[in-house]
Write a structure and sequence with these properties.
alpha/beta, Rossmann fold, 6 helices
């Protein structure tokens, strides 16, 4: 990417019914709403899967960070299916492994530990977002 990126797409997995899918989504929301509002954007993963033109344009025109809830890496694979290599890919469970005192629980909505862990994960990803927004390696 030759010019400065204005947006960084953070694409979490859908992971419905799975705690680490919920952690991936909540981390993306934290990045978008609290940590880097106006810089981080997201889209609905199923829109990308069905090759919605706006979702496809978003991931092809901006650097992408994927956060997957399980080793199936659906978010990463969905981006790659569009011919785009994510700038960075993360597994939500690794945030827990780095902060084992915050074991998340909950499916539709995370418990307090899960929300705290998502906030910490978002704070840790801020540097990656900043590097990409400044035109760092895509």
């Amino acid at each position: 990417m030759s010019q400065k990126a204005k947006k960084v797409v953070v694409l979490p997995c859908s992971g419905i019914g799975k705690v680490y899918g919920a952690l991936a989504r909540e981390t993306a929301y934290e990045l978008m709403d609290r940590v880097r509002p106006g810089v981080v954007v997201t889209t609905c993963l199923p829109l990308l899967v069905i090759e919605d033109s706006e979702a496809k344009q978003l991931v092809t025109a901006n650097p992408v960070i994927t956060i997957d809830g399980c080793p199936k890496s659906c978010a990463q694979k969905s981006v790659e299916a569009q011919g785009v290599t994510p700038a960075q890919s993360f597994q939500a469970i690794n945030f827990y492994k780095a902060h084992k005192d915050l074991k998340p629980d909950g499916i539709a909505e995370l418990d307090e530990n899960g929300r705290r862990l998502a906030a910490i994960a978002a704070d840790e990803l801020a540097r990656v977002v900043d590097d990409l927004a400044a035109g760092g390696v895509r």
